[in-house]
Design a protein that fits this description.
The complex is a heterodimer of chains A (378) and B (514). The longest helix of chain A has 19 residues. In chain A, helix 7 crosses helix 9. Chain A is an alpha/beta fold and 378 residues long. Chain A starts with a strand and ends with a helix. In chain A, the strands form 2 sheets. Chain A has an 8-stranded mixed beta sheet with strand order 1-4-5-3-2-6-7-8, with helices on both faces. Chain A has a 6-stranded mixed beta sheet with strand order 10-9-11-12-13-14, with helices on both faces. The radius of gyration of chain A is 26 Å and the shape is globular. Chain A has 13 helices and 14 strands. Chain A folds into 2 domains: 171 residues, Rossmann fold; 160 residues, no CATH class. Chain B is an alpha/beta fold and 514 residues long. In chain B, strands 7, 8, 9, 12, 13, 14, 15, 16, 17 and 18 form a 10-stranded mixed beta sheet that branches. In chain B, strand 5, helix 6 and strand 6 form a beta-alpha-beta unit. Chain B is 34% helix and 21% strand. Classes of the chains: A alpha/beta (378), B alpha/beta (514). At the A-B interface, helix 6, helix 7, strand 14, helix 11 and helix 12 of A face helix 2, helix 3, strand 3, helix 4 and strand 17 of B.
């Protein structure tokens, strides 16, 4: 249900919320947090969709502050969405015009849920100093998105680093969680040797690559270098150099299947999908305490990362980074070797296997397969 | 700048403050016995896919199916695919599926066929070479306990149960862990002769449920519950697990086992232990189990078992909108079977905290609805400064932990009815898990399988707990067997036999309507 309240006041919005709650039952009572979204008109709808999706995991009240034209008289347009139009949350959209546009905090304050945490999210351009921003200062947690903030990633991240306050976090950081998880799990296994050098290949417009490099540098205390792939390709590969040989994690440009390569181990493919905004936002809402690991990556690790202008191709040629083309070829080779029809389209076409078999035929099958396998081995 | 040290116990990329980082299992494979069963199809295989989809399985993870079917790898792949399509919790992603599918193998064979297990050993070795599973294997025995001995011996004979240096072998078994103390010990000896105690994971899927783990959070993370969690304030505790279904096609397993062995011995006694235990020193597996074992060893049975227990068997009736047959008319049930489908028992816990507070446990099939809950019912206020008429409708306060469905916590207390008169009536205050947190909380099996692969045992009952539970239940079963006679009949769709209500009435209490 969508209720429009043009030219209104926060009292009226508040009253209407209570009334809607009475009419439809206790829907807002177990909300665990308030998510304040600060966005401009062009991006508003998409941001609301993302927040709704994320709210399925964390029911919350979403307050969207849309700053409109700053000229003209002060005016507040309100809109309430509940039920099917609002995922598992209730959404209050506040459009501010004229002088009011500068006073987001004043309209947000009366609508906050009592005694529960506040999270502020800027889907696009983040303020220069998030914790000093009037709306940002209200939040326990401030979520920026460096990849959608105008400016070079290094510059944007540098600004966020110098303004860092506990509770700051960035969606570019949650986008690398899977990469971090796999790299960490790789170091859990023998051989236990220090990493002496690392190279991250990522697009020049990818703050995620920078943060991943910053994290590696802060944690591993070794030289970490960045090499540039084509714009828009995201993170392509990570190489951790150890005495016994490098650990390579490669995700070729085309997509989501990646390869992990370690000395003395067979190559392994793994799914490493690009994470959606809603998934990342839900991740951010999961924990509301300061993220010290992000702080280290941003403020300690990142300044140490060499930002040579080396291109990905040069890095591969110099042997500092794994070749994505080769990884792609090997992935295909592994797929073929796996033999069994693995794509869902092919599995879909297979008939349902017969349930039930005679003991003799099963025994025969086992014996045959064993003989076959032993032959292959010898 | 010296690079950070890396050792087996110190991984510089890991940081206890890094709560984002997923716990990804190390390289390993899983061998599943009994892949044609319902559990494997509806729960286990979908859970494996969901874990893969959440990025929690190691690269190269492989799944080996073992069954008495003449199938190829791709046939088993089809079975997994269909079960994933139908039952997985998370959306289907082509690339996740492909990665998983590459590691799917099938071994045809019977449990007594040496060649089949040699083939399994060869397959596992092959996977280690091809996909880098590191020689780590978890065996999931989703098979009847009768076959455990054969399978364990086969695993030992084929060398599958012995890990090479630096790798692990684990075995997962499902309830029932025996049908009495003696058989539980036998079973333990069989598995224990092949696998060391810390490699045996007993799955009680109830313990993987979020709400069950939430019992500990509610009790020990808060100030407001623990101070009243004792005999000074608590009158009694009711633990209910009701099912609305009958035995379905499970007569072969169920007949002769009955409700008490099927549910009370494991689920209800575990819930009771979590409700009644003292605060553990820490939340690691060892300390949690110590406290649970302490409580279970302090359980006292009623002196007169004929009045302190009740059992019943469902008769024909109307369940919801459907006419259903009685237990004795179900397919596959022995004529005149004395197996109970409803069991209720009063237990006391002999500790300072719980002296004089009875725990009532009940479970049954074909009851009013499907519900599992723990209700801690408080004493009445010692003095009510109101007139009798004002508090006529006031019941006892209660904290109800709803385990399923609609997981959450309810508080029941009195409030004034609006109006000119002073009148107090019960109201409830509700915390719904689904409303405050995620709609899609992980399935219990996801958590448990991941814990097996990570080797983290806190949620798995140890053999000692199983033994203690049987010590509690064995005398009751013996009493029922000795007394003979058939269980009391109750109409399907009701809340159990009159004898169960009698049991409560004798103590001056009554069952909650869950």
């Amino acid at each position: 249900m969508i209720v429009d309240l043009p030219n209104t006041s926060t009292q009226a919005v508040s009253k209407r919320l209570v009334k809607l709650r009475e009419d439809t039952g206790a829907m807002a009572l177990s909300r665990v947090l308030t998510l304040v979204v600060v966005v401009d008109e062009a991006e508003a709808e998409q941001a609301i969709d993302t927040a709704n999706d994320a709210s399925r995991q964390h029911p919350c009240r979403i307050i969207v502050v849309v700053t409109g034209n700053r000229r003209g008289t002060a005016r507040l347009d309100g809109q309430i969405r509940v039920g099917g139009d609002a995922g598992a949350s209730e959404v209050v959209v506040l459009r501010l015009y004229g002088p009011l546009a500068r006073h987001g905090r004043a309209v947000v304050t009366p609508l906050l849920l009592a005694d529960s945490p506040i999270v502020v999210w800027w889907p696009t351009d983040a303020p220069k100093d998030p914790s000093a921003d009037p709306v940002g200062a209200m939040g326990q947690r401030r979520i920026t998105d460096a990849s959608r903030t105008s400016g070079k990633p290094r510059t944007v991240l540098g600004r966020l680093a110098s303004a860092y306050a506990p509770g700051d976090t960035d969606l570019a950081w949650s986008r690398v969680t899977l990469w971090r998880g796999i790299l960490t799990a790789a170091l859990d296994q023998a051989p236990f040797e220090p990493v002496t050098e690392a190279t991250v290949v990522a697009a020049p417009d990818s703050p995620s690559g920078e943060l991943l490099a910053g994290w590696l540098s802060a944690r591993l205390r070794c030289p970490v270098r960045l090499a540039q792939s084509r714009r828009g390709t995201g993170i392509i590969s990570v190489r951790l150099v150890r005495d016994s040989g490098p650990v390579d994690l490669v995700r070729p440009e085309d997509g989501s299947t990646s390869m992990l390569r370690q000395p003395g181990q067979p190559d392994r493919t793994l799914a490493l999908p690009h994470r959606g905004d809603a998934e990342c936002l839900a991740d951010e809402l999961r924990r509301l305490d300061p993220d010290e690991v992000y702080e280290d990556a941003l403020t300690v690790g990142l300044p140490e990362v060499g930002s040579g202008r080396r291109s990905a191709t040069e890095a591969v040629r110099a042997g500092a980074a794994p070749s994505p083309a080769e990884a792609e070829k090997d992935t295909r080779r592994l797929r073929r070797a796996a033999g069994a029809a693995s794509s869902s389209a092919r599995v879909e076409k297979l008939p349902m296997p017969e349930d039930g078999a005679s003991s003799e035929s099963v025994q025969q099958a086992a014996a045959d397969r064993l003989a076959e396998m032993e032959e292959k081995r010898s | 700048m010296t690079p950070a040290r890396v050792t087996a116990d110190h991984n510089p990329l890991r940081d206890p403050r890094d709560k984002r980082l997923p716990r990804i299992a190390g390289p390993c494979s899983m061998v599943m016995f009994g892949v044609t069963g319902d559990l494997a199809r509806k729960k286990l295989m979908p859970a494996v896919y969901d874990l893969a989809n959440r990025g929690l399985l190691p690269p190269g993870f492989s799944l080996v199916g073992f069954a008495r079917r003449d199938w190829e790898d791709q046939d088993f792949g089809k079975i997994v695919y269909e079960s994933v399509k139908e039952h997985a919790r998370t959306p289907f992603r082509e690339d996740v599926w492909r990665t998983l599918a590459e590691g799917i193998r099938f071994v045809p064979g019977a449990f007594d066929d040496d060649a089949a297990f040699d083939l399994l050993a060869a397959t596992v070795a092959d996977l280690e070479e091809q996909r880098g599973t590191g020689g780590n294997v978890a065996f999931y025995l989703s098979i009847p306990p009768g076959s455990f001995a054969t399978v364990c011996q086969q695993l030992e004979r084929s060398g599958l149960s012995t890990p090479s240096e630096g790798s692990w072998r684990r075995v997962v078994i499902e309830k029932p862990f025996g049908h009495d103390l003696e058989s539980a010990r036998e079973l333990n000896d069989i598995v224990g002769s092949v696998f060391p105690a810390d490699a045996v994971f007993r799955i009680d899927h109830y313990l993987g449920k979020e709400t069950v783990q939430n019992i500990l959070a509610v009790r020990f993370a808060n100030m407001m519950f623990e101070p009243v969690w004792n005999n000074r304030y608590v009158d009694h505790v009711q633990i209910t697990m009701a099912e609305d279904i009958g035995i379905g096609g499970r007569a072969g397993y169920y007949d002769g086992i009955g409700a008490a062995r099927d549910v009370i011995q494991n689920h209800l006694l575990q819930l009771m232990a979590l409700t009644a235990m003292e605060e553990p020193v820490s939340f690691d597996a060892h300390h949690l189990r110590l406290e649970k074992e302490k409580v279970l060893s302090a359980v006292r049975l009623p002196e007169d078992l004929s009045t302190g227990t009740a059992r019943g068997q469902y008769a024909a009736g109307w369940q919801g909108g459907e006419e259903v047959v009685g237990y004795l008319e179900e397919d596959g049930v022995a004529a005149g079977s004395g197996t109970e489908t409803y069991a209720a028992v009063r237990l006391d816990v002999d500790t300072r905290r719980w002296a004089g507070v009875p725990f009532y446990l009940r479970t049954g099939k074909r009851l009013g609805k499907r519900v599992t809950e723990i209700a801690v019912v408080f004493r009445r206020a010692p003095h009510l400064p109101f007139t009798d008429t004002a508090t006529e409708e006031l019941g006892q306060n209660a904290v109800v932990i709803r385990v399923q469905p609609d997981e959450g916590v309810t508080l029941r207390f009195g409030a004034k009815v609006p109006g000119a008169q002073m009148e107090v009536r019960d109201v409830s205050m509700d915390f719904g898990y689904g409303r405050s947190f995620t709609e899609s909380s992980p399935e219990a099996y996801e958590r448990l399988i991941l814990d097996v692969l990570l080797g983290e045992p806190p949620l798995f009952p140890r053999h000692e707990e199983v033994e203690l539970s049987w010590r509690i239940l064995d005398p009751i079963e013996e009493h029922w067997g000795r007394r003979g006679g058939d269980p009391d009949q109750y109409e399907a769709g009701t809340w159990g036999p009159p004898s169960a209500d009698e049991l409560m009435r004798r103590d001056g209490r009554e069952w909650r309507l869950p």
